[in-house]
């Protein structure tokens, strides 16, 4: 299956109770605490901390894990353990990332695991590959910068989404994960040109900065899965080490497949086929890019984004995690909804697909 690691395993994390108290005293702190991890028959020293934004307030915490001794294991320096607590299916993030991979978009690998903390069961978690140097090495991609879009100012605009004013700097909204000299300046130059070039000038220059085909495939993925926040955050930018063109990488896709970030149901027509953000608007203003997007979207709507294609993936993943979900101490009151989610997701796919099939003609 796309984006999979090995079969579901047990991840045993040990943290001194004193350090757990420190984490709980300030859930917003990014200060790492020491711990030990038993994983795939290895016992290693790690650093750990809570991760995420609003999810840090939730009862079931998510974690960032960094290897300390050794610094690298199984080709990784770090990874993430997501509780997926507000997704009643616990599957949306993985389904989304695998879906992106299936349509030709660079996407993190993921797998569900059983987590214990100090030998106490914590339930089902999603282990997520970090988008860093190891991500590039695993895919034989040349070394290049990686910028995380950490808030809504990563909107490819000159205007701030957060304070409704002109941005003080065009690097707002981004956090540097891997840096190559000159790449942030190139990103700022790209954002400025996206907002100031005339249509014909933009059409002629944009492919010097952006892998347009990959971007349109990313746009197709986000429009199909309907991640409203994903247009201005929940992505990483990779600057290819040789071509110097930017690639979009999806991240944090639990608010998808018919539910928002709090788990509430979303109407299947909530996100328009044209998507959002300034860069998308500029690309779709160019006829040949708009037609290229329509062709990619139509292909996906007839192949990957269909109930027959997705049903086996949804039901097999549900079957795989079901025994562990049944024993998850945080999910005892939610089991009825969990069991209904495969049908809910498949129903959303059919309804969303019909919406997009009706709207794709507007692009032509």
Task: Describe this protein's structure.
By secondary structure, this protein is α+β, with helices and mostly antiparallel strands. The protein has a domain at 145-304. The chain contains 10 helices and 11 strands. The protein has helices at residues 17-25, 92-102, 133-138, 183-196, 199-209, 212-225, 278-284, 287-302, 307-326, 335-359; strands spanning 9-14, 33-39, 42-50, 63-69, 78-82, 110-117, 120-129, 146-149, 174-178, 235-239, 246-250. Strands 1-2-3-4-5-7-6 form a 7-stranded mixed beta barrel. Strands 9-8-10-11 form a 4-stranded antiparallel beta sheet. A hairpin with a 2-residue loop joins strand 2 and strand 3 (42-50). Helix 6 crosses helix 8 and helix 9 runs antiparallel to helix 10. The longest helix is centred in the last third of the chain and has 25 residues, at 335-359.
TL;DR?
The protein is of the alpha+beta class. It has helices at residues 17-25, 92-102, 133-138, 183-196, 199-209, 212-225, 278-284, 287-302, 307-326, 335-359, and strands at residues 9-14, 33-39, 42-50, 63-69, 78-82, 110-117, 120-129, 146-149, 174-178, 235-239, 246-250.
**Spatial shape:** globular
- The percentage of residues in β strands lies in 15-25%
Q: What's the order of the H and E elements?
A: EHEEEEHEEHEEHHHEEHHHH
Runs in which pLDDT lies below 50 for 5 or more consecutive residues are none
The whole-angstrom Rg is 21 Å
Assign the structural class, choosing from mainly alpha, mainly beta, alpha/beta, alpha+beta, or little secondary structure: alpha+beta
- Could you tell me the number of beta strands? 11
Q: How is the biggest beta sheet arranged? A: 7 strands, mixed, barrel
Mean pLDDT: 94
Question: How would you write the strand order of the largest sheet?
Answer: 1-2-3-4-5-7-6
N- and C-termini, Cα separation: 34 Å
Number of helices: 10
Percentage of helical residues? Answer: 25-40%
